[in-house]
């Protein structure tokens, strides 16, 4: 595996109490693979991606686990070592490009900053590299548009610039946190097609963070479903869509409108995601689950193998999660 996350735990310490945002999760990312992490807001998927990058700020803290990249545990790396890896070997794009790009700097200057830091190129070669990556992400007339300010570009174009910045130093892993959320449907499809094509062209692995299962179906190879900071299901995309196992995953898929069905109302998972300060004692999904048993209210099921999938549910076995989560 290119990236291995083992027993990762991230918590936020507030005046109101401790929020366990990521609770003992483990997964791997292979070279050239697109792995999607999905879940509702508050499930811990974005905190997971930030933890991998070592970007958790106070009052948050990574309190346990490993993030192993090419044999090195990034959680034990120095700030200097992390700075060399970020933006070079592992890059990240965020969901709102207008807040990530500096509004008073030209696109050229923002691209050159990263290239100069990591690639040690001359000013002329760095500019050629910046134009090259704009061309790679299919921005028209890159030699002209490189002199634009962010506000002179559409939302889709700004997102392509963010991808270009992330790709400027040939990263081995791209973490994309909700890369299409702020875009209309047509532009979303273009950005997803672009990511898929870039994976094929340059062979990088992609960790895709999203709440949209439609995005996953079109793009990813494998999928992790998170709920309240835990992984509740993990499978190849084709297996998960064909035979979802966890009641939460089934609910998410049932909520997607289908053209061949005539329903007056869409399916809704009952209840809401619990307050992070009052998560149910046993299975986090127990208070919303149609199959909830008495033991679900008191015990946390372990993530176990079920067919080709991994699932955290007592419907598929009686194994318990270790208490020291």
Description:
The protein is an alpha/beta fold. It has helices spanning 45-53, 79-85, 97-100, 107-119, 123-136, 142-145, 155-167, 185-202, 213-219, 237-242, 247-254, and strands at residues 3-13, 18-29, 34-38, 60-69, 72-73, 90-93, 173-177, 205-210, 222-227, 230-236, 304-306, 309-311. The strands form two sheets. An eight-stranded mixed sheet has the order 6-7-8-3-9-10-12-11, sandwiched between helices. A four-stranded antiparallel sheet has the order 2-1-4-5, covered by helices on one side. It is globular.
Arithmetic mean of pLDDT: 89
- DSSP strand (E) fraction? 15-25%
- Radius of gyration in whole Å, from Cα? 21 Å
| Low-pLDDT ranges | none
Shape: globular
Residues in helix, %:
25-40%
End-to-end separation in angstroms reads 24 Å
Q: Strand arrangement, largest sheet?
A: 6-7-8-3-9-10-12-11
Biggest pleated sheet: 8 strands, mixed
Total DSSP E strands? 12
Number of H- or I-type helical stretches: 11
Structure classification: alpha/beta
SSE order: EEEHEEHEHHHHHEHEHEEHHEE
Provide a short characterization of the protein structure:
With 325 residues, the chain is of the alpha/beta class. It has eleven helices and twelve strands.
Question: Which characteristics define this entry?
Answer:
32% helix; 12 strands; 325 residues; alpha/beta; 4-stranded antiparallel beta sheet; 8-stranded mixed beta sheet; 11 helices; single chain
Q: What's the arrangement of secondary structure elements?
A:
Blueprint: E1 3-13, E2 18-29, E3 34-38, H1 45-53, E4 60-69, E5 72-73, H2 79-85, E6 90-93, H3 97-100, H4 107-119, H5 123-136, H6 142-145, H7 155-167, E7 173-177, H8 185-202, E8 205-210, H9 213-219, E9 222-227, E10 230-236, H10 237-242, H11 247-254, E11 304-306, E12 309-311
Parallel strand pairs: 3-8, 3-9, 6-7, 7-8
Antiparallel strand pairs: 1-2, 1-4, 4-5, 9-10, 10-12, 11-12
Helix pairs in contact: 4-5, 5-7
